[in-house]
Amino acid sequence: MAVPSRRVPSRLRLATVVAGLLALLGAVAAIAMAGGGGDDALPVPPTAAVLEREAAAARRPDPAVPEARTRRFDAAAALRLVRDQVAEGQRPSGSERLARVRARLVRRLPLGRTEPVAGHPGLRNVVGRMPARGSGRGRPAIVLAAHYDTQLAPRGFVGANDSAAGTAVVVEAARALLAADRRERRRAARDGEPAPSRREVRFVLLDGEELPPGGSEARFEQDGLRGSTAYAAAHAGQLGAVAVVDYVAGRGLRLPREGQSDPALWRRVRAAAARVGVARAFPDATGPTIIDDHVPFLRRGVPAVDLIDWSYPYKQGLDDRLRRLSERAIDATGETMVDWLIAERRR
Ligand SMILES: [Zn+2]
């Protein structure tokens, strides 16, 4: 989800009340689920035929988003991974559906494994990594993160952009970075040089970003953000920079700097966007301040940015579906993250 940290504008109050009632219904369903019903209380996932149609919609041209000039990130594969997650339907923390998704995600990340979320039995973050080399071993690690759970409410919410897309960007960025690293090492070996020093990169898929049953949107930072809070508590001292991707694949994508994102780190991300030719999707502007998974890292003094398109019209609703995404948008984000990680590993 992620919530704005400002007061809610008055015209949104009714929507908030309605959302609150839906949240209550969702919580009742979740409690029923926790009561031994497995995932039986969750709504039926979208059919393969529906997903096929929606995937075609996501591949339609999106002229408002600039086309990247690099070809490191596989946007088609990323969209397939969004579809793979959405095919499970609504997949809140603790559900069997999310456990199935998690098992597949672990296998896709380099050195992938899971890590318990302290204080929240049953919740697990998924962590992959590319180890440091040479003098990079003494330097703090870089993190690319997204959450992989979905909201409990409204019932039927599938979270294509929030955050199956962010999750897919993390996984496919890892694959692209690994390929770039292999090329680099081969080149060094051919030239009879040692592989260059590089910092460690971690690919972190966070559980429990969304509110648990009975959680309050007014207390989102305390009730939500469970995976990132635990990860930051355990590892902040090892980290030098964190980028969180959330709402990064909507049609017409725009990612201004989120209000509390670290300005210096943001400038480096934006420089990467310019290098891959998609600066227009990263306007030199500041958007709203959002409570999201970057906050626990900022609280512990780790420079962090949240890439989030708060103008996405379908956020937190039933229409946050595959058909609202665009291949070109996820590519712009993915290519930018890969270029940023390549540069950041050398710092
Ligand atoms: Zn989210």
UniProtKB/TrEMBL annotation:
<dbReference type="InterPro" id="IPR040234">
    <property type="entry name" value="QC/QCL"/>
</dbReference>
<protein>
    <submittedName>
        <fullName>M28 family peptidase</fullName>
    </submittedName>
</protein>
<dbReference type="Pfam" id="PF04389">
    <property type="entry name" value="Peptidase_M28"/>
</dbReference>
<keyword id="KW-0012">Acyltransferase</keyword>
<keyword id="KW-0808">Transferase</keyword>
<feature type="domain" description="Peptidase M28">
    <location>
        <begin position="125"/>
        <end position="339"/>
    </location>
</feature>
<dbReference type="InterPro" id="IPR007484">
    <property type="entry name" value="Peptidase_M28"/>
</dbReference>
